[in-house]
Hints:
Layout lengths: L16 H9 L8 H14 L4 H14 L5 H4 L4 H8 L8 H19 L4 H6 L7 E2 L13 H12 L7 H10 L3 E2 L6 H11 L1
Parallel strand pairs: 1-2
Helix pairs in contact: 2-3, 2-6, 2-9, 5-6, 8-9
Amino acid sequence: MSDTTDLIRCPWAGTDPLYRDYHDREWGVPLYDNQTLFEFLILEGAQAGLAWITVLRKRPAYRQAFDQFDPYKIAGYSAARKTKLLQNPGLIRNRLKIDSAVRNAQAYVAMAQSGEDFSEFLWGFVNGRAKINHWRSLAEVPASTAESEAMSRALKKRGFNFVGPTICYAFMQATGMVNDHLVNCYRHRQCALQSEA
């Protein structure tokens, strides 16, 4: 990996190597894979009320405990399996969030069975194309938008939870549906070019 210590980044990336790597490699990159999108939706819900770095540090444990975020497997988790997850110190041990992951997997499977593609459904809220913003400071970046509010409503209607407008907007930022890297961040242009590819 090349040295990126002197590059200008979004201020939230800070100095933590894990956070910087996430900023540099993942955040804002257009993502279309159904299972990876499902992973991000679950992790964004798990993050509610906590710092994202907390979730990043726990992501390997989440992937292991949740069958690599395979929604078909998670949808079938029993009460005993959920109790076991609540006892896993590598996870955020919140019963509502564990229950939500299973419920969301069931909603995902129901969508698939009715012929709805998860990725197409989600990207439909930005008309299938990343929205490139040009913020100059973090203060300008919204917590939610009309698109994230519409996504939240549509997901809730399909049985998902922990998908409020703010969680949905963070999800849209993470998965590149919107490019909210600040304009002076070196990743802004790179992610914009990836969204045009």
